[in-house]
Each structure stands twice: as C-alpha cells, then as structure tokens.
C-alpha cells in the first residue's frame, strides 16, 4: 500500500520585504513581510532576544515537515517589567540638516540624526550620525524580520515618494537648499523623526543592537538595496502583496478567543473613521492654503485701489487694509501648516500603525495555519501507522512510529507558539492603546492651543484696523 502523500502547507507565500510604497487599501495589511534573503538566517539574526528563541517558521522548502521543533527557552519578560527596568532613563532624538548629496538621478538626501540619552547601553551621552532615507527603511526591515513574527507591533517606516524625490534629484538647487520651492524635504524630515521617536518609545526595540548601531555608529551603513521601489525585488513584493492579501481574504480562522474578535472589529472601525478624518483634515489644509492665496489677492487689490484713490483718509484706510490682509494671509498659511504637521500627520502615522497591528494579527493567523497543518499531518501519520500494523508491514512500522512522534512534537510546539504570540499580541495592543490615547491627548491640546493663538492674533489685527476704518472722513 502506498504511503499517504503529504499536502503542502496552507496558503504558502513568498515573504518579500515591503517598502510601504503607496497607501493602497488593497495592500495595507501586507506591508511588513520578511525578505526572502533572510529566511536562512532567521536564527542568526535574533541577537539574543528571549522571545525569539523558539520561532523559526519561514522555510524555503515547500513542506512544513521542516518546521524546527525546539522546546528550549523561556517566556519573555512582560512589558511592565521591561519598562520598569528603564526607570528614569530618556532618549531624545532629533533630525536636522537635510542635505542633497550628489547630482542627477544618482543624488539622494542625507539627514543628521542627533541623539541625547542617559541610557547606559549607549557609549556616549550625546552623538550625531548622518543617515540617508534607505538607511531608515533598512532599519525597519531588520526590526520587522526579528520581531514581527513573535507578535511585536513594529512602527511603520515613512513611505517612499518617487515623484517627490525625483523633483529633488533633477533640481538645480545647491546641496544646502534642497527644497526646490516645496516642503517635501521638511515633511520627510519630520516623518523620519517621528518614526525614530516612536521606535525609541518601545521598551524592547530601543534595546535592539541594530537600532543602537543606527543611532550611534559613525560609519556609513551598508546600502539597503532591497528598499528600491523600481527594482525587480519591488516587482516581486507587489506580487507577494497580492498573494498575501488573497490569503487574508480567503482564509478565516475559527477564532476561539473573543478578545481577538472584539479587538479586530475595534481596529477596523477605528481605521475607517481615522481615514475619513484624515481625508477631511487634508481637505481643510487645502482650503486654508486656498484661503491664504485669496487673501493675498485681496491684499494686492486693496493696495492698488489705495494708490488710485484721491480721498486721503480712504486711501490710507485701504493701504492699512492691504497691510492687514497681508498679515492675515501669513496667519492663514501658518494655520494650514499647523493643521498639517500637528493633526494630519499624526492621523497618517496612526493609519500606518493600525496596519502594523493588523500585521501582528496576521502573524498569529499564520501560526494557527501551521498548527492546524501539523494536526492534519499527525492524523494522516497515525492513520498510515495503523494501516501498516494491520497489514503486518513491520519493516515500516518503526519509521511510521517515528514520524508520528515527530508530528506530535510539532503539534505541541505549534500550540505553544500560538499561545505565546497570542499573549504577546495582547500585551503589545494594550501598550499601543495607552500610547495612542496619550498621543491624541497631546496632539489635541497642542492643536487647540495653536488654533486659539492664531485666532487671538487674528482678532488683534482687525481690532488694530478698526479705528483706521472709523477715521475715514
């Protein structure tokens, strides 16, 4: 009797690193996959993190029989224990001095990353390094490779912008003036700074050797070629996103923990509402800029009218009106920038973070798939062993028994890994919710304070103009 054929693993996907190129809904949940080139180095790149010793689930072989079984290792420290160990330590990161390096299409932007800290894991208390944009993406790749598969929520790296960077590359501006008439460089600088600060807030990621090397190693990091948007790897990532998205749509695990059902529904509802709010805030920013532009037109028209007016007091009032409208124009533009950098950018960041939460949930689903596959294979191996015993095929009974023992260990290990990642995700989501509430509180307070100051200044401008209008004889 022929041996049973072992089926391939469920929904096998090629894990290609995502550079989060565009914020397309179709691909939003498949942004942070492991690069294929790292699959053989999973255990080598763990850097000693306790919660990573036992998970090595990505294999290049098509059969899941090769999933390693390792019962050694202990559960990681709780998030509270790790945070308590940090005490009063601080880590302040700022990014300044964006510089255009090189000319033509080979040019790139370099940023000065300055760090101040009292953490003993760093060699100095204050240090600065120069990093290019691909270095930030490379850092995100390394952190995702090591921590995503165990359920950590990895802050997403800023998106690439081919159009924005192309404008910088073809501009004729000097290296010290890369703006080329737009605020693309400033927006990217701010987003990179927020990314590093958000990563530094995580009590585990901040201790990662790759993160420390990124901040304090005063040498040029190896170029992260996998981050190229137009390379063959980028095309493969696109196909992988499609396959991964189909996987998520077509496969629904039978959830036994109501916490995950409730939390996933909450995340989906929150993401929907944040997208609506983000779109409306973007529209408000555009309207404020348009208002500023129109106010400038009023100012110029009033100035021209005052020059044509023969009546002295009316001409003076029109001239003062032109000056006031010019001040109001600057105020509207400043308010638009406040709307964007304080409110709009935070909403965009959290849309990306919700995608990172989804990725952690999906890693749990993948472990569930491995576990279920192991259970199916165990049942087939037991059935095959029973048939051999009934047919007195003693020459293969011992081998079948060894396979049964092997798959029993894999089932046990699969359940253990699934329980571990479930516990880790609950801890991570709890921390994520605390940070989210605190971030939104700080953002709203800062935004309203700025808004009130702008409105108060606007009132002062018009109060100063009112006596001049009343003085028209």
Ordered list of secondary-structure elements with their pairings:
Blueprint: H1 79-86, E1 91-101, E2 108-117, E3 126-132, H2 133-147, H3 162-170, H4 184-200, H5 209-216, H6 232-250, H7 258-308, H8 312-390, H9 394-470
Antiparallel strand pairs: 1-2, 2-3
Q: Which percent range describes the beta-strand content?
A: 5-15%
| DSSP strand tally | 3
Strand pairing plus helix content: what structural class?
mainly alpha
Question: What average pLDDT do the residues reach?
Answer: 78
Distance between the termini: 112 Å
Specify Rg, calculated over alpha carbons.
29 Å
- Across the major sheet, the strand order is 1-2-3
Major beta-sheet overview? 3 strands, antiparallel
Shape: elongated
Number of helices: 9
User: Helix coverage percent of residues?
Assistant: 55-70%
Provide the succession of SSEs: HEEEHHHHHHHH
Poorly predicted parts: 1-82, 174-181, 229-235
What report would you give on this structure?
This protein has 473 residues and is mainly alpha-helical. 60% of the residues lie in helices and 6% in strands. It has 9 helices and 3 strands; from the N terminus they run H-E-E-E-H-H-H-H-H-H-H-H. It has helices spanning 79-86, 133-147, 162-170, 184-200, 209-216, 232-250, 258-308, 312-390, 394-470; strands spanning 91-101, 108-117, 126-132. The protein has a 3-stranded antiparallel β-sheet with strand order 1-2-3. Helix 7 (258-308) packs antiparallel against helix 8.
